[in-house]
Design brief:
The chain is mostly helical. The protein has helices at 23-29, 35-48, 59-71, 78-90, 103-110, 122-126, 130-149, 152-157, 164-174, 190-202, 216-230, 236-246, 261-272, 278-287, 293-307, 324-334, 348-355, 363-370; strands at residues 14-15, 18-19, 50-51, 54-55, 341-342, 345-346. The protein has 3 domains: 1-150, no CATH class; 182-273, Leucine-rich Repeat Variant (Alpha Horseshoe); 277-376, no CATH class.
């Protein structure tokens, strides 16, 4: 295993921090008997060949070796390696849910990128126009996606693995590729079954036979999958299940949306209910005070998207000029200071989301904007 690792000219390739000559050592360290060594190596790879979602020249060449390790039954923590492969293939999955990965758009964006200098040629790359830089980046991302796609037969072979974590990760991976492998919809592990159902829905195929499953996470997954497949034609039972999940706060082991099936359900409401639907808005506004940080993001995002369909309001827009639905959202945000926090600190990504609609950037300012009394 890894016998050809040193045949790759890693020092000529680049990752987030320069030449990628440290990648071989991190890949080898993933096979260590020491869990701390493996953890550090995985952390390093997430920081170099997948830096905050960006992929680099060195990303695609690392993929065959990761697949080789996953294929070996004795490799420790194989599920975590599959998760890294999925991240390399698509980036952060929340960028594409509930709709699925836009492969055709990526291929179109990458057209012509192969004739341009890659990101390793810093000076030449920096001299490119912004549009050409985008082509190069899209080409890199497409190469990585296709490299991971070579592992589809491997992922399919792992659907019967004895380790539920491996089955779940493999099922998750297959959701992002047009694979024909039958997914384990009736797996004895609820998280594996739920992951399989969502993966099937992302392929545009409606799962059958699991609607009455006694396991709540499976029923939630069925609703998400059927919303993806049927959209506004989804049954009332599907809508009710989505509303139930969107209004809850239950965390799951399902890898999609980092286990936040409630947030995924909130996103999926747009598929089954129109933006002017007050039933959906009521559920979202009820949940906002109960969540914070990362969990608050999809709920608030969906509420804002529904009531500000034209994007940000003009600077200086008085509160009284907002619609009644917009005022409802503003008042709930103003009255929910904990929603703005992550680990008891201001959450920058959340502020960026709010500011994107032209609204005040903290709860106190939002209260003042809405004419509400200050927090005691």
């Amino acid at each position: 295993m890894l016998e050809k690792l040193d045949d790759v000219p890693w020092s000529d390739l680049h990752h987030a921090y320069g030449p990628a000559d440290d990648v071989p050592a991190d890949l080898r360290a993933l096979l260590s008997d020491d869990a701390d060594v493996r953890k550090k190596a995985l952390w390093n790879l997430y920081g170099t060949i997948f830096h905050q979602g960006t992929r680099f020249e060195a990303s695609a060449p690392a993929v065959p070796f990761l697949l080789e390790m996953v294929a070996a039954a004795g490799t420790p923590a194989r599920a975590s390696l599959i998760e890294l492969l999925v991240a390399l293939a698509i980036g952060y999955d929340e960028a594409y849910l509930p709709d699925g990965f836009p492969l055709d758009e990526l291929r179109s964006a990458a057209a012509g990128g192969e004739a341009l200098p890659a990101d390793g040629g810093a000076e030449r790359f920096g001299a490119l126009t912004e549009s050409d830089q985008d082509r190069v980046q899209a080409r890199i991302e497409l190469q990585v996606y296709e490299a991971v796609g070579e592992g589809v037969p491997l992922f399919a072979s792992l659907l019967s693995d004895g380790d539920p974590a491996v089955r779940e990760a493999a099922t998750y991976a297959l959701g992002w590729f047009a694979a024909e492998a039958p997914l384990p919809l009736a797996d004895e592990d609820a998280s594996v079954a739920a992951t399989a159902i969502i993966s099937l829905g992302l392929r545009g195929i409606a799962p059958s036979g699991a609607e009455g499953d006694p396991r709540g996470v499976v029923r939630g997954a069925v609703a998400i999958a059927l919303a993806r497949v049927h959209g506004r034609q989804a049954s009332r039972a599907v809508v009710d299940e989505l509303l139930r999940w969107a209004g809850g706060a239950e965390r799951t082991e399902v890898p999609y949306f980092d286990g936040d099936l409630a947030g995924y359900a909130a996103r999926s409401l747009r598929l089954v209910l129109g933006d002017d639907d007050d039933e959906a808005l009521d559920v979202l506004l009820t949940r906002i005070p109960a969540v914070s940080g990362v969990q608050a993001q999809p709920v608030v995002e969906e509420a804002l998207r529904r009531v500000f369909p034209h994007g940000p309001i003009a600077a200086g827009t008085p509160f009284d000029d907002l619609t009644e639905r917009q005022k409802r959202v503003v008042r709930v945000l103003a009255a929910s200071p904990s929603t703005w926090l992550f680990l008891e600190r201001a959450y920058g990504t959340f502020r960026w989301l709010i500011g994107g609609y032209g609204l005040p950037l903290d709860a106190d300012a939002m209260r003042a904007y809405a004419g509400m009394a200050k927090t005691p």
